[in-house]
Amino acid sequence: MSDILTQDQTTASAPVSDTEIVKVERALIDQSAQAPLLFLYTSAILWLLTSTILGTIAAIKLQQPDFLGGVPWLTYGRVWPAFTNSFGYGWASQVAMGTGIWLVARLAHVSLRRPTLLIFGTVFWNVGVTAGVIAILAGKGQGIEWLEFPGFVQAILFAGFVLVGAWVATMFRLRRPGHAYISLWYLAGAFFWFAWLYSAANLMIGVVHVHGVVQAVVGAWYANNFLSLWLTSIGLGSIYYFIPKVSGKPVHSYHLASLGFWSFALLAGWTGMTRLIGGPLPAWLITVSIVANIMMIIPVATVMVNFVLTLRGNYNLIYFSPTIRFVFFGAIAYAVASALGLVSSLRSVASITQYTNFSIAHSQLLIYAFFSMVMFGSIYYIVPRLVGCEWLSSRLISLHFLGAAYGGGLVILTTLLGGIVQGAAWNNPEESSSLVIQSMAPFIVGRCIGWIFLIFGHLFFALHFLTMLLRLGRPSGRPTLFPTHHEEGAH
Amino acid sequence: MSNPEDLQQTQAAHEIDYRESMDVTKVHAAIEREKKEPWSASVPIPLWLMSLFGLVLCFGSYYLGNFNGGFSGDVYNERAGMGSSSAKKTGAGTEATGPETAVEAGKKVFLQNCAVCHQPTGTGIPGQYPPLVKSEFVNGSPKRLAMILLKGLQGPVKVEGVTYGSAAMPAWEKTLNDKKIATVLTYIRQEWGNTSGEISPEQITAARKEFKDRGDSWTEHDLLAVPADATLEGGTPAAKPEAKPEAAK
Amino acid sequence: MRFSTLFAGIFLTFALAWFGETVVPNIQLGNLQPQTDEDGGDIYPVNNSGIAARGRKIYVAEGCFYCHTQQVRGSQGGSDIDRGWGSRQTVARDYIYTDPVVLGLTRNGPDLANMGNTELVDSSTGKKRWKDAAWHYAHLYSPRSEVEGSAMPSFSYLFEKRKIVGQRSEDALKLEGEYAVENGYEVVPNSDAKALVAYLMSLDRSHALKEVKQEAPAK
């Protein structure tokens, strides 16, 4: 909370206005954040483009297996993990770190100290992801989902993250004493949890060498927590910041937020084994995860009630504020993703959806429709404050939104429905493998169309970002809003 | 404070400080129009939400209590021990029903140990593992066969005129007992069109004794040094005519 | 809330889940030994040896597990057994020598856990599911020649297309119709292809285990 206001209310005769001090503080923070944050965002967006291309190639290859065929580097079994890893580590993790850093700085009311820590961390991270993606394409993948990077790459990535994490810890120590705002809980959690998560998973699999299905258990635990305790946590923290910030209204209920955070922290780590329903695991392990998934209704419902009711009265912001449009889209997508996760974790539903594209669609809902959209919204808010000019064209933002929302929506929907059809077909003993595979074809064609939309959406976004990087944006005091109506002081 | 500064302040409200100077009194317009940092109101948790959570907790506890399989590492079916209506099919038990013949036992041993390389059809893999179908080693001397099984085989070997040699055959004397070696050899000698006699466990015991000092696996040369009609002690009388009662060198 | 409370909570909740979901399963399942019968024989499972072990590495390198699973669900979980993919649910003991454990996550293609088993019957065709090496080679080189409409990529780089010198090689693939090789040329698998096929044909997880029931397909 902005304690500076409460403190100075007692000295009514202060010559300099309280809000001036606050504004100066924010300007200092933004200025100090410029270099590391722009570096993180630029590398993240470059990886977004790379992974979009890899994802499109993978989608086309599922329908036209001879597309770019015969090239070992581009076989589906290598392009697919290259896509997921470049998207998850190259784009998602870096934009998470960037937005997380800015939020921590703003909410701690301290400007960035030691930006070199962050710059080095980003360099390590990018070197690691590049080496890792090349290694996967060369056939050196490790065979565990989300942990395919070879050992030395994992070490480089971890070193980079430690630098960033050390920075976050420093900021927490230096922060103004008093209550920490809701977002800070999620951010503190996310950075701490990812450090432990990444090191524990790699140590258990790579150093201690757990055997057999325990590898799958650790892998599922990691993959699930990567999405929930790292990315989702940052995403929720960001939504908790931007909705009240842009609308100027307080978060609906502190008590709900508190309940939401603690139930999330308690339960989210246990939900991983639903990826292995029906697999060679003892029944208790899977049941525990299913129960955790059911109980996740509690944090998801509280968080959604908070989001929706905080924005109450300001729903028109969705129409003309790019930040709120992307962020609120993400919030709704989070609810949808959680609902799907809950339903598919029940064993009776899982007998159809397990081992199908349904699980892929669910992950994509979380990592794209929820997390990436929230991050797009945060970039649209933060970057003008870093470069000192406004976004060039609301039409470009609009095109980005269309590409991302419709493209992403099409990809996810076709993958989801295709997965259900696939699962039902595999469960039908009369249907031969050949027929099952052919029944998927129309869904994959739809998926490819969605990917084309995504390519265009991301390209427009990247070009727009480039103009801002070159300080070619609009030199104006008014923010770039969607052209419905203009309201003074909307941002 | 002086007039030009005031003017610049108001201009700054709508302009950007491109000079990016350290003079932060000229804050740029985005900061200027920002609302205050987020804070939260103190609305209590609604009753309907609490009731929903209570229901969720109840259902979760019920599910955990019912399907936990005793938290044992050996229970893979969450419906185990829940009454016969939920257990779907009961297939064949894990124990063998009734006594089985040497051939049946041998087939099991073969499928578990040998089929990996020699294939369930006994055809091997061209260039890698020799076939057992119509193989002169399988259908020939029991002694040569026992040698191969007990100590293993290294180096190239010619079977049916074709040379195989990239993979070595491991020794089985430690993994398989006499009975198992005898039954598997019996099995391969009369499966897939082979029609040779059976081999008894006593013969394998004799072979084991004979070669107990041999450490390395054999080469083809060693095998061919043993006469093609060499037999092992302890052969059954119903064996084919080549099995002579005396053991050859 | 106070920062010390926050940090303690963040630490403890994660520690609890980490312990319960990774350490406890490792204690329960991390040291499983192969099952043996009373005489110490009939050991199951045994580790892949020879080129089958190398074949598993190629299976991982080519990312086969992104489209194929290697786990059979029990009848309470799906129709895997009815399809003829296995005679029982696969359990932890089946995988003690599989490193990395290639359980797979998506079934863009059929399950492979029992690809080397000769007894199982494919429910949709009524024929035995087992395929010989020649089928595997043809399928890897040109998947659509064996499975109509297959989305599997063609692993032609695991093979060598060369001019026939003298006699046709014994290893040469027999492809017909529109997939046939032109006159004077033959396609021969290289050592990677042979290792991969040896691995695929070694996959058999139907051996009876005490902790799980054998099941028969519903007819």
How would you characterize this protein structure?
The complex is a heterotrimer of chains A (491), B (249) and C (219). With 491 residues, chain A is an all-alpha fold. Chain A has three domains: 21-178; 179-312; 314-491, Cytochrome c oxidase-like, subunit I domain (Cytochrome C Oxidase, Chain A, Up-down Bundle). Chain A has helices at 3-8, 18-63, 76-108, 115-137, 151-174, 182-207, 212-247, 254-267, 283-295, 297-310, 317-320, 322-344, 347-353, 357-387, 394-426, 433-439, 441-469. In chain A, helix 2 (18-63) packs parallel to helix 4. Chain B is mainly alpha-helical and 249 residues long. Chain B is 38% helix and 2% strand. Chain B contains nine helices and two strands, in the order H-H-H-H-H-H-E-E-H-H-H. Chain B has helices spanning 3-12, 29-33, 47-66, 102-118, 136-139, 142-151, 178-189, 201-210, 220-225, and strands spanning 157-159, 162-164. Chain B is elongated. Chain B starts with a helix and ends in a 24-residue tail after the last helix. Chain C has 219 residues and is mostly helical. Chain C has one domain (49-202): Cytochrome c-like domain (Cytochrome Bc1 Complex, Chain D, domain 2, Orthogonal Bundle), CATH 1.10.760. Chain C contains five helices and two strands; from the N terminus they run ααααββα. The longest helix of chain C has 27 residues, at 3-29. The radius of gyration of chain C is 22 Å and the shape is globular. Chains in contact: A-B, A-C, B-C. The B-C interface holds B 73-79, 86, 88-94, 108-109, 111-113, 115-117, 119-121, 123, 125-128, 162, 166-168, 170, 175-177, 180 and C 25, 28-29, 39-44, 46, 48-52, 74-76, 87-89, 91-92, 116-118, 130, 132-133, 170-171, 194, 197-198, 201-202, 204, 207-216, 218.
What is the topological layout?
The complex is a heterotrimer of chains A (491), B (249) and C (219).
Chain A: H1 3-8, H2 18-63, H3 76-108, H4 115-137, H5 151-174, H6 182-207, H7 212-247, H8 254-267, H9 283-295, H10 297-310, H11 317-320, H12 322-344, H13 347-353, H14 357-387, H15 394-426, H16 433-439, H17 441-469
Chain B: H1 3-12, H2 29-33, H3 47-66, H4 102-118, H5 136-139, H6 142-151, E1 157-159, E2 162-164, H7 178-189, H8 201-210, H9 220-225
Antiparallel strand pairs in B: 1-2
Helix pairs in contact in B: 4-7, 7-8
Chain C: H1 3-29, H2 51-61, H3 133-141, H4 143-146, E1 159-163, E2 185-189, H5 191-201
Antiparallel strand pairs in C: 1-2
Helix pairs in contact in C: 2-5, 3-5
